[in-house]
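Narrative summary of target 7.
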Amino acid sequence: MIEKFLHEAASSNLSEQMGLSPDQQSQHKAFLGLTEADLGLLAELAPVIERHADAVVEGFYANIQHYPELERLILGAGSSVERLKRTQRAYLQELFKGDLGPEYFERRLRVGVIHHKIGLTPRWYLGSYSVYMQLLAPLIFRHWRWQRGRALQAVLALDKVLSLDAQLAIDTYIHSLTAELTVVSLSKGELEQRLAAYNGLIDRVAKGDLTARIETAVGLATDDDLAHLGVNLNQMTDRLAEMTSEVAESSNAMLVSVEQVRASIGAQSSGAAQQAASVNETTATLEQIKATSQQTLEKATALKEVADRARAEGDQGLTVVEAAVNAMRHTRGQVEAIAGHIGVLNERLQQIGDITNAVGELAQQSKMLALNASIEAAKAGDAGRGFAVVAEEVRDLAEQSRQATTQVQGILGEIRNAAARAVRAVEEGNEGADRGANLADRAGETLNSLNRVIHDTALASQQIVAAVRQEASGIDQIRIAMKDISQVTSQFVAATRQTEAATDQLTDYAALLQNMVRLFRVGGARFDFDRARTLHRTWVARLEAFLAGRATLAEEEAVSHHHCQLGLWYDSEGLQRYGHIPEMLALDAPHRELHELIHDVVQQQNSGRRPNAEQVMARVRTLSARIVELLDRIETKSRTLETGRGEAG
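Modeled conformation, tokenized:
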């Protein structure tokens, strides 16, 4: 109350609050005998006071320094002496301004409020007016020292103004005290009524009823500290209700999130198991590939060895062909030499024919010719045998030259014939030698091509061996990597199982949190239905995880529809609040059947009859969708009914 009054004093019209109308302000001045002449006399002194204002203010605060209590009040009020000096200087100027209208009264009252706020008691500020009189009176008498009567009138006028200020300060002080007394003016009955209302609120909140509030007519009707306490209690209850609703929504969201995490973990776990199986299959395949690669390496190595041998034999064959070509070329040269010799022989035979008649005379010469012919025949080899015979006969004829001239002519004819045959034989030999040389050249070219192919094959076989070895090394590295992946996958599967256990704990914590929140009434239906749906979906999700092999469930955990979380809510708060809605009553049958089937699913699955469990689970899913649909319809109807009641009220 006091703080509110002080706030109003700084922002509203204090004269109106305290009942100081303009007429009453005039009465104040009249009672003191303060006239316009007095104010005019003070206005004449304004220039004098202006010249001495700083000295007066310094003298005033020099007196205050002797009183530490006053200094502490000034500092405690958040002000300073220097700031107050400026305020006091303005006050001096107002005293001698000659205008004491409504604004002056308002400023004086405001100063009184501030004095009360900082704890400055009347004895201090009333005494300050006497200090001002002691400082200002000598200035006035000194200014009108030759007009003592005028000076006295001015001092009396100043005393009247200071007395008016003192009266206003006292009025403000009394008004403040009256406001304080109002705070403690409540009757005993009012106090007991308020305390009963407050105790009732606290008791209802302690029992979990966060809809309780203190009624305005009982605890908040007045504007005092107890009323503020009631407002604070209501605000505290509002905040508790908000926090409880937030906790409820958070626990619902936590359950939904946990189930989403559980489903995600189940999918990850299933994927990891499939991945582990794939890794094992891949590892086995890699082992087979490695064995095949080893066989390929062995065959490639054997191929390389064959290619190396073929390359060596090809190089040797090429050398032999080159030697054969050279021999053929040499033979052709020899045949050409024989042909040349036969030509020379024909010339000689012609000469022999010309000198046949002189054979006798030239017997000795014939012997020499025969000797030469024998030598040439020896050089000709087989082809020169006939020529050797002729040479021998020439020698004989040389002996018998005289008797065998006719015989020589015949022999010369035979020699010519033999020479012609020899020429033909040489020509045929040249042709054969040419064909042989050509064949040898083509054989050499073929061997060269074959040798290049063999060389390329050997190089390719080397590259195949190197590639197969790299493949084997890569397969080993892949096999090692697959083993690492298998280990990591196993660790991931173990981690997902741990995470599943953690989500189970989170589910338990969320359910515990919801049970704790149920102790409080916060109003509204959203929390109830969200909770009901979440509890139901949590159970069904757990059953799905169990059927997928990601969780375990014992038959004793498959409780009846009265003992699950949704059933507990249905039998208590659900029926109490929404039993008048037909869908609420219709919820019992599918809920009961669902729990009977849940027990059947657990029994079939734990007995190893998964196909049967899957068939029953299909019906469970249908019933679950029906239950959620009924809950949605119940919520919609409950809101419609509550809205209708609110509008009717």
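Confidence is low (pLDDT under 50) at residues 1-6.
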